[in-house]
Specification:
The chain is mainly alpha-helical and 154 residues long. The protein has helices at 2-6, 13-32, 41-53, 60-67, 71-82, 86-104, 109-115, 121-132, 136-141.
């Protein structure tokens, strides 16, 4: 799109808007449907395992067992593929699921905590606030927040 603008191929606001929309949709597709097929099998299997078992108490050793790699090789490879550590990825998945539950259900914080793998609502609230920047209650009540269902962690 930048190249088309540079060489003046974007003739009007409609053409420019169409290209911008296409760009945004491709980015959203990439975020919502990561290309795990391009990842090593061990990492793809681990990501799938996390998505299937995020409700359970997961520790790094569980993920290493799924990957069948050495601890340090697994952590390095996982971080190269996902840009976060394995346990931050688990947190990311849990918080994304919690955000959906907060917006779509009337479950209590303790109930949501249980649904997404945390032992209690207090710890869940602490983690949620550290990742999202607001408390779960404020997020649930908030009308001013832009809805998003994917978290970018660093």
């Amino acid at each position: 799109m930048f190249e088309k603008a540079r060489v003046a191929e974007l003739k009007n606001v409609y053409d420019t808007s169409a290209h911008a929309y296409t760009c945004v949709m491709k980015l959203m597709d990439h975020i919502l449907h990561p290309q795990t097929g391009e990842w090593p099998e061990a990492i793809s299997q681990t990501v799938l395992f996390i998505h299937e078992h995020y409700r359970e108490p997961l520790v790094l050793e569980d993920l290493i067992e799924v990957a069948r790699l050495s601890k340090f090789h697994f952590i390095r490879q996982f971080q190269q593929c996902t840009n976060v550590t394995p346990m931050k990825f688990v947190t990311k998945v849990r918080i994304e699921k919690a955000m959906k539950l907060l917006k779509e259900t009337d479950l209590t914080l303790d109930e949501i905590a249980g649904h997404v793998g945390y032992a209690n609502g207090n710890y869940f609230s602490k983690v949620f606030r550290s990742v999202v920047g607001v408390s779960p209650g404020k997020y649930r009540r908030g009308k001013e927040f832009i809805p998003f269902d994917r978290i970018i962690m660093n």
